[in-house]
Design a protein that fits this description.
CATH superfamily of the largest domain in chain A: Pyruvate-ferredoxin oxidoreductase, PFOR, domain III
Number of strands of chain B: 8
Number of domains of chain A: 4
Oligomer: heterodimer
CATH topology of the largest domain in chain A: Pyruvate-ferredoxin Oxidoreductase, domain 3
Distance between the termini of chain A: 31 Å
Structural class of chain B: alpha/beta
CATH topology of chain B: Rossmann fold
Low-confidence stretches of chain B: none
Helix content of chain B: 25-40%
CATH architecture of chain B: 3-Layer(aba) Sandwich
Chain lengths: 545, 289
């Protein structure tokens, strides 16, 4: 069973809520869903749409073949009806026109109920759910969960639509409710699971929803959420908080991350833990602010002046995001370095569904000495390069510095001392590599002689395409630094043909692979129209190659 | 606790005779006396510096310290207080540091009213980079980057602090040590954002010592520091220029308590690092089902 439903209209007409309602009703019945969100940068008007894909098997991406278009304006029909399946049709109010349409007199019902215009969406939803044979009680229990305080109106309007429809199919409850969440919610959840104390941000799409999510939850979870005056403040305040012993995360997109890069370098030099969520959007510059892209890979890997190491981890779906966020916190605290979680709009704002939500079993240890010794040195040289950490308030002197320094953190310009400290910081790398190798840094899916290599949010479309591709495996790289080059090289060597898949114009991962393994990947499946890949895009591209 | 207890073994590399020595000594004495009086604890001191001559103070005081980036002292201070509101935070910045690169942070910090002290060593010049103009250099100042003379009027940072909502605004003079120590101590004791400007002549690149010796004037004992309008009028008496003799007032211009940043957050009660977090995964993940 698979249904693909497009919900479209103007911004402000409740497109996201409507699609979420449909998705949640099905996920509560045990179906898997994927909900793709497409919206321009404006508050009212324009054209927004969501694509809800519903299936009895796991799905990780959207499709561009629709069973039904729930249209709230004419533009939705004009733009999308060409992608209706043969038996597909448009469901809309009486005032709209389409080649194949089922119209409802929404105005009449709203007038009768004296209900606001926005409630018209519920009439369409009620009709749609009855059409697919969903029992009323299941719909009402979803309403109870999702519309606290507004249940009565929603229920009444849904029922009106429901009563107008005839059952076409009989979709039943097929299992336990699924978990549904976006990548941004997963970042928030992962941060809570990691024991984060403080989240600091400046609003920037597509990372802003993490700020909203955590801000709403701050009191019940006893965390502090701050919006400061710019990303430079955000990153420097985060380092101040880290110095004083808090577990901190900041979140932004490419432009904001650009402003943070000087502080990123400071995190490298001062060896203060810091987790950065970098949610990419279409760039350069302002780019296409509410759309997706993967063009910041090399920026994330090399941002900040000077030589210092960092973690760069790129989860491929919301469930993985939870675990990778915890890992980012753990590695950052243990090795005293910045961790970058590299996501994008497609990962951050799409709804994913899962049978289970698991967190990592990693400990939330702060890696701060309980009783630091009398002669404590903030930058003590140790066998693995990790200096034990103390914080202000602990009866010893703690120092953090942007300047080259001795073991106490006092400034030095002495060449021998400089070499000792540079080497101390770099010494950590091989220990981090060992630890990251245990965290499943690259994963193989499927079987076949040919190989697709990718990273980040393309995972969903590739996984959904894989069963239709003959003789293909998929290598998902989750850790971009430290880079699991041995495993990658091994997989490349084993393969007849190798293709790179990336939401960019030049295929940045190919450059990274070339740098780390010496292998050049020539065949690239790229997409740079600011939209994510669908599984059909992948299949079509491979057939054309 | 004595001032000497804060000494480090680091060699001091300010120019011989630099008024920064006076600021350093004042800082150590003020901190020592606050500790002796039981008002603060040595272990809870956190000093933050920017980049420039002033910032060398990081190496000369044996206390918890953060040597930050040029212009970024204030967000670091805010972060420290957000992580541990029990700490006594003193930020040190230069005039270039605070009013060129970091002026946005300064304006917002006055607004936020974090309970901390910001000390600006104002020498009206970028000294460590060999004598370029800063936002507080007087019109006509001729430096390496402005051989034709500065064409713009200087910024008045004390007036800016008042207008931006700072709850403690004062000025000291690095060569009036006893007066400086007194207002420095009051600044740390004030609950809220304290801005202390210290006129610190640069004996190498910008030396108005004769002008200051002649024109510096302590505020009258009866001066009413609760009067904001009076404060603004008083701080505008001198416009950071040296053309004509004008009174250069020093002292506490304005002080008024209002709610501090840290206390406005109900969840900010004790240092986060002392908290052992127990995560109820079932509870936090169930809402997505």
């Amino acid at each position: 069973m698979e249904k693909v439903i497009l919900v479209g209209g103007e911004a402000g007409q409740g497109i996201a809520v409507t699609s979420h309602f449909i998705a949640k009703t099905f996920s509560n019945l045990g179906y898997f869903i994927f909900n793709y969100r497409d919206y321009p940068s404006l508050i009212k008007g324009g054209h927004n749409f969501n694509v809800v894909r519903i299936s009895d098997k796991p799905v990780f991406s959207h499709k561009e073949e629709y069973d039904l278009i729930l249209a709230l304006d004419q533009k939705t029909i004009d733009l999308h009806q060409k992608k209706l399946k043969k038996e597909g049709f448009v469901l809309a109010g009486k005032n709209l026109k389409a080649k194949k349409i089922h119209s409802l007199d929404i105005e009449k019902i709203l007038n009768k109920l004296k209900a606001p215009q926005i409630a018209g969406n519920n009439i369409l939803i009620g009709w749609l759910l009855k059409y697919y044979g969903i029992k009323k009680e299941f719909i009402f229990s979803t309403i109870k969960k999702e519309f606290k305080g507004k249940e009565e109106l929603v229920q009444k309007t849904v029922e009106e639509g429901y009563n107008l429809a005839k059952e076409k199919e009989k979709l039943k409850k097929i299992g336990k409710p699924k978990y549904v969440l976006t990548g941004n919610e997963a970042i928030g959840l992962g941060a809570l699971a990691a024991g984060m104390d403080i989240y600091i941000a400046y609003p920037m799409t597509p990372a802003t929803n993490v700020l909203h999510f955590l801000a709403k939850k701050q009191l019940e979870n006893n965390i502090l959420v701050l919006q400061l005056d710019d990303e430079i403040s955000v990153a420097n305040a985060a380092l101040g908080a880290s110095f004083a012993g808090a577990r901190v995360m900041v979140g932004t997109s490419g432009g904001g991350f650009a402003l943070m890069t000087e502080a990123l370098s400071l995190a490298g030099m001062s060896e203060l833990p810091l987790v950065i969520y970098l949610s990419q959007r279409t760039a350069p510059a302002t780019g296409v602010p509410t759309y997706t892209g993967q063009s910041d890979l090399k920026f994330a890997l090399s941002a900040g002046h000077g030589e210092f190491t960092r973690i760069v981890v790129a989860p491929g779906d919301a469930a993985e995001t939870i675990v990778r966020t915890q890992e980012a916190f753990y590695l950052s605290a243990k090795y005293r370095l910045p961790s970058i979680i590299l996501g994008d709009k497609h990962l951050g704002e799409s709804d994913f569904s899962f049978e289970e939500l698991k967190k990592s079993s990693l400990d939330n240890e702060r890696f701060i000495l309980k009783n630091p010794p009398k002669n404590y040195k903030s930058y003590q040289i140790t066998a693995n390069g990790i200096s034990p950490r103390a914080v202000p308030g602990q009866n010893v002197i703690s120092r953090a510095t942007s300047y080259e320094h001795d073991e106490y953190g006092l400034t030095t310009e002495d060449p021998k001392e400089i070499v000792r400290m540079v080497e101390k910081r770099l010494k950590k790398i091989k220990f981090i590599e060992k630890e990251v190798n245990k965290l499943n840094p690259a994963t193989i899916y499927g079987q076949g002689q040919n190989l697709l290599i990718s990273w980040g949010s393309t995972k969903g479309a590739i996984l959904d395409a894989l069963p239709s591709l003959k003789n293909f495996r998929f290598l998902q790289i989750s850790y971009l630094n430290p880079f699991p080059q041995e495993k990658i090289l091994k997989e490349i060597k084993k393969s007849k043909k190798v293709f790179l898949v990336e939401n960019s114009a030049t295929g940045l991962l190919a450059d990274v692979i070339a740098e780390k393994t010496g292998r050049i990947i020539k065949d690239k499946i790229l997409k740079y129209d600011a939209r994510p890949f669908s599984s059909q895009d992948i299949i079509k591209n491979i057939k054309n190659l | 606790m004595k001032a000497e207890d804060f000494n480090t073994k680091t060699e001091i590399t300010w120019c011989p005779g630099c008024p920064n020595f006076g600021i350093l000594q004042s800082t150590k004495e003020v901190l020592a006396s606050l500790i002796t009086e039981g008002k603060i604890k040595a272990k809870d001191i956190a000093l933050v510096s920017g980049i420039g001559c002033h910032a060398k103070i990081y190496d000369y005081i044996n206390a918890n310290s953060f040597y930050g980036l040029h212009g970024r002292v204030l967000p670091v201070c805010l972060g420290i207080k957000a992580a541990n509101p029990e700490l006594t935070v003193v930020g040190f910045g230069g005039d270039g540091d605070t009013f060129a690169e970091g002026v946005a942070h300064f304006v917002h910090s006055c607004r936020y009213n974090v309970n901390m002290t910001m000390v600006v060593h104002n020498n009206q010049v970028f000294a460590l980079t060999t004598g370029q103009t800063t936002p507080t250099s007087e019109k006509g100042f001729s430096g390496a980057s402005t051989p034709l003379g500065v064409k713009t009027e200087p910024l008045n940072p004390v007036a800016l602090a008042l207008i931006s909502g700072a709850s403690f605004v004062a000025r000291g003079y690095a060569l009036e040590i006893n007066h400086l120590k007194k207002i420095f101590k009051e600044a740390i004791e004030h609950k809220g954002f304290s801005f202390l400007e210290i006129l610190q002549p640069c004996i190498t690149y910008h030396n108005p010592i004769p002008y200051f010796q002649k024109n510096i004037q302590k505020l009258d004992e009866n001066y009413n520091f609760a009067d904001w309008e009076l404060a603004l009028k008083t701080v505008r008496e001198w416009d950071y220029s040296f053309e004509k003799d004008k009174k250069v007032p020093i002292g506490l211009f304005y002080k008024k308590e209002r709610p501090v940043f840290e206390e406005t957050w109900p969840q900010l009660k004790k240092p986060w690092y002392t908290l052992k977090r127990e995560i109820d995964w079932h509870k936090i993940s169930q809402e997505f089902k």
